[in-house]
Amino acid sequence: MDHAAEAQRTDLMTITRHALNEQGRHPESRGDFTILLSHIVLGCKFVASAVNKAGLAKLIGLAGVTNVQGEEQKKLDVLSNEVFVKALVSSGRTCVLVSEENEEAIFVDAPLRGKYCVCFDPLDGSSNIDCGVSIGTIFGIYMIKEKDNATLEDVLQPGTDMIAAGYCMYGSSCTLVLSTGNGVNGFTLDPSLGEFILTHPNIKIPKKGKIYSVNEGNAQNWDAPTAKFVEKCKFPQDGTSAKSLRYIGSMVADVHRTLLYGGIFLYPADKKSPNGKLRYAVADSLFFMHPRLIIDICIPVGGDMSWYLQYSV
């Protein structure tokens, strides 16, 4: 028996253990962030379970309402939002919650109020729910200066002020990717243990990738530089091989692939949206946490982003 291999398989680095190890590096820490993270993890586990049985539990289909982005909400959207709101409030560590599914920010009642603001999309890519494509949860965490006098102004912080960011992808496996500004780590849910286990430590984006990811259905509305760049991906003039197009339409899945395999994911401004889309950008007046968070937090610490196209409002 290979005892070394057995030891490796039994010495599991769970996401809770990982967070506690990080906490130990900060003697002044009181464990508030670790507690908050544990509630986010709980929400991810609940949603992962709901996604797996969505068809059987009749969670597929429209809920009959739209969200703040004007998108029709799916039943699983609504359930996921309720799960995360309740999990975050019950942690006792949050002050303000901002969800894509709610028109207004949620201010936690004083007795349960903490020092963090959590911005999240409870279920990104929900238009893919009915066909079984990977979807996910996106979240970002800010620190609130005065929890007893929190206002919307406290939420409108630049993405660079986030203390943590991540996403949880629900697909062939359930993977949670987290960054607290000191590297990017991926954890996979082991259903038999009910624990997220570290499977992708210190993720680094490959410096060169063979994939480009963009919705070419919008090509007629692109500006000239964007169209030229995509054209070069398909028909390079320097003798290199053409890049392969991979576009899922679920940001979590597209960005996760880019983190692991390299390449580029872009959602550029166009004639229909000349200033870009807030949901795909981080501006100084950011109100919702959306995909560009991953670029601002995970991408820089996950690898060289000199090749990464960026579009902001």
From TrEMBL:
Keywords per UniProt: Carbohydrate metabolism, Cytoplasm, Hydrolase
Q: Which reaction does it catalyse?
A: beta-D-fructose 1,6-bisphosphate + H2O = beta-D-fructose 6-phosphate + phosphate
> Gene3D superfamilies recorded for this chain?
3.40.190.80, Fructose-1,6-Bisphosphatase, subunit A, domain 1
What are the GO BP annotations of this UniProt entry?
carbohydrate metabolic process
- State which Enzyme Commission number(s) the record gives: 3.1.3.11
Report the enzyme's class at the first EC level. Answer: hydrolase
TM regions (residue ranges): none
User: SUPFAM superfamilies in the record, alphabetically?
Assistant: Carbohydrate phosphatase
Q: Which residues form the Fructose-1-6-bisphosphatase class I N-terminal domain?
A: 13-201
Q: Where is the Fructose-1-6-bisphosphatase class 1 C-terminal domain?
A: 205-280
Q: Name one GO molecular function term.
A: fructose 1,6-bisphosphate 1-phosphatase activity
Record InterPro entries: FBPase_C_dom (IPR044015), FBPase_class-1 (IPR000146), FBPase_N (IPR033391), FBPtase (IPR028343)
In the record, the note on similarity to other proteins reads: Belongs to the FBPase class 1 family.
Name of this protein: fructose-bisphosphatase
Source organism of the structure: Brachypodium distachyon (Purple false brome)
**Upper lineage:** Eukaryota, Viridiplantae, Streptophyta, Embryophyta, Tracheophyta
